[in-house]
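Q: Here's a chain of 345 amino acids. Please give me its 3D structure as tokens.
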Amino acid sequence: MDFKATDIAEFLNGEVVGNGDVKVSDVSKIEEGKPGTLTFLSNMKYESFIYKTEASIVLVNRDFVPKTKINATLIKVDNAYQALATLLDLYEQTKISTKTGIEQPSFIDESSIFGEDIYVGAFAYVGKNCKIGKNVKLYPQVYIGDNITIGDNCILYSGSKIYHDSVIGNRCIIHAGAVIGADGFGFAPQDDGTFKKIPQIGNTIIEDDVDIGANSTIDRGTMGSTIIRKGAKIDNLVQIAHNCDIGENTVIAAQSGFAGSTRVGKNCKFGGQIGLAGHLTIGDNVMFGAQSGISQNVKDNEVLLGSPAIPIKDAIRSITVHKNLPTLQRDVTRLKREIEEIKNR
């Protein structure tokens, strides 16, 4: 389907600069723009590409001032990146909304109930006493255990697994291979050196508007609940252990791991490959750089980096010193030699 620049601008509350009748049917990266596609510029590191892109329409921020002629039609908006996200979301929802009905073979226990406009893909399984809301999409090979509650407008992609007693809110997206509610890592050491499994009798609660990436795992509570709060966004390959509590609108990048019973505040940002020890309390609005190791509680509004994680300014100084260690070592060796020479005169 083709969309005119004027229609896109009206939808985004934007301003057209150039040919308002130009049409697009796809999107592209600005450095790979093709005729008939829409792209965007929000990071000025890529500004050079806007002057040579072949894309037909470019979303830009309202304060963008070209340095030279641009062939593409511009649509000026308050925030180009957010505007693109809005358009892509509309495009995605248009595709997803066409999925309805129950494909065969699949299994839905007769004790479970669904809302309107559901989609259940082939080889999906829904266990006993489940309550699943309206407009929910369960793609092929999704597993829903017993006593599961899922809210409205959720999407569970192929191969995601939801263990018994889990609760999922509204408008959640769970990507392929994610596992929600598996047992926490609880084993009691015995006198003979073996380990006895501790039953994990809690559950997992995913609140509204949470996004969980592919192959991420969120364990159930040993007792009580593991909770992912409203609006949290979790990347691929993230492990969250039993009884963790992840705060609202917190963002966690790939390959990060959270040990058990760690509590994270609101609006935190975790870079990739971060590790947290168990039983920690992380405040609100905290930011961690990639590969940080966190072993102590952290107060509100801190920005930390390194392993062990320290304030980012100190971490940068430490990194600078570490880079210079070979030179420092040579200088120390030279000075020691000169001192010995002076002493032996």
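Q: Can you summarize the key feature?
A: The mean pLDDT is 94.
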